[in-house]
Amino acid sequence: MLDAHAIVLSPFETLVLNLSLLAVVAWSIWKAEKSLDSGSDLTILALITIFAITGRILLEPLPNVQPVTVVVLLVGIHYGATRSIGVAAIIAISSNLVMGHGIWTFYQALGWSLVGVTGALLSQSLRVDDKISVPRVAGVSFVVAFAFDWVVSASVLHTLPLETLPVYILAGLPFDLVHGVGNIAFAAWMAEPISDIMSRHSTSREVVVRPVKSSS
Amino acid sequence: MSDRFRLGSTVLLVVVLLLLPFIRDSVNEEVARFVSDSESSHAGLPTEWDENQVICIYFPAEYPHPVYSSGVSMIDAEGSIIGVNNDLNLTGACVGGFEGYTDGMNFMMDATRVAGGHLAVGYSVNPNWGEFVHTIGGLNDQEIQGDFNGAYWSLTHNGRYSVVGIGSLVMEEGDVISWNIETW
């Protein structure tokens, strides 16, 4: 939620403002990475995590459209399951400080962890000729959107009886669809640049994509 | 390739976002079919309401309503109390005798208005998830204290937990919705 003090912003104006803020964050992280020594994988992990948290909060005006799922998937592909689980949990907890913390935080952390593990397991198949395959990442990110949402939907079993779950999931399908299509768009825009950055700072243990020659 | 993919996926996202309200409405109509059993949900209500739409508000024992604190008061569409059911082991009020409503929020606002402010509804609107009811009849769910994390107004549709919020609820003839406090 964004309070514009005395100025009342329409939802569309709020969205434009938020998208501009997110563009500034993405641009500054993109620039900052250029001056990092190669092998700064933990710094990159921190910057990417902050980008995902910021993105999720700033894109709140759009229902279920956020960069977290694609980011966690890419972290899983490049840095492996363990780190993606840490990133997934930190993103869920941190962004929910703003968006609302509750029992669903656990399920969101779990859901995104599973997305990261999926990325780690599929890391070999999600690249073509040592380079990340954007269409494949987009395809997987569409599918895991539904899986993630259903994991989070399972949290209603704390309050609703089991037989309600199918209807609850049915009612959520339009939002799952938006999540999936949003993921495709994020993959189209972010998979390559984020993948390049992570490759330049990949751990020696888990080199997936051949490092691109640094311009500096 | 990648530029076309970026442009195409962005356009697709905008289209899906613009169509979302229509997709959601048609899915919610499907959802409404799963909760169309409305016969047993009229139990304990005046029989003349059997074919009509009814809303009930039940208050927790620790936080009774200042007026409807003994049994469940039955209020007709004109605002007159036509009876009190003391056998339900609940306290609160039901307002019934309505027909023709399809939009849950419209129905709730019109029906509670009949009680002349005693059942006034307070809600906030989240741009993503729609209307969120926090206060009914002066009881704000944030004020409820006890041995639990939090409390909220929970919506029941024909005797079952509603899987959608009141703002997305599609109603049919003879439907009964009710609100009671749940904790987590």
Task: Describe this entry's structure for a reader.
- The complex is a heterodimer of chains A (216) and B (184).
- The relative contact order of chain A is 0.14.
- Chain A has 216 residues and is mostly helical.
- Chain A has one domain: Arp2/3 complex 21 kDa subunit ARPC3 (Orthogonal Bundle).
- In chain A, α3 crosses α7 and α5 (103-121) runs antiparallel to α6.
- Chain A has helices spanning 11-34, 41-58, 68-79, 81-99, 103-121, 134-153, 165-200, and strands at residues 127-128, 131-132.
- In chain A, a hairpin with a 2-residue loop joins β1 and β2 (131-132).
- Chain A is built from seven helices and two strands, in the order αααααββαα.
- Chain A starts with 10 loop residues before the first helix and ends in a 16-residue tail after the last helix.
- Chain B has 184 residues and is α+β, with helices and mostly antiparallel strands.
- Chain B has a single domain (35-183), classed as Ferric Hydroxamate Uptake Protein, Chain A, domain 1 (Beta Complex), CATH 2.170.130.
- Chain B is built from two helices and ten strands, in the order αββββαββββββ.
- In chain B, the strands form two sheets. Chain B has a seven-stranded mixed β-sheet, with helices on one face.
- The N and C termini of chain B lie far apart (50 Å).
Secondary-structure blueprint of this entry?
The complex is a heterodimer of chains A (216) and B (184).
Chain A: H1 11-34, H2 41-58, H3 68-79, H4 81-99, H5 103-121, E1 127-128, E2 131-132, H6 134-153, H7 165-200
Antiparallel strand pairs in A: 1-2
Chain B: H1 2-34, E1 53-59, E2 72-75, E3 81-85, E4 91-98, H2 104-113, E5 121-126, E6 130-136, E7 139-140, E8 151-157, E9 160-161, E10 176-183
Parallel strand pairs in B: 1-10, 2-4
Antiparallel strand pairs in B: 1-4, 2-3, 5-6, 6-7, 8-9, 8-10
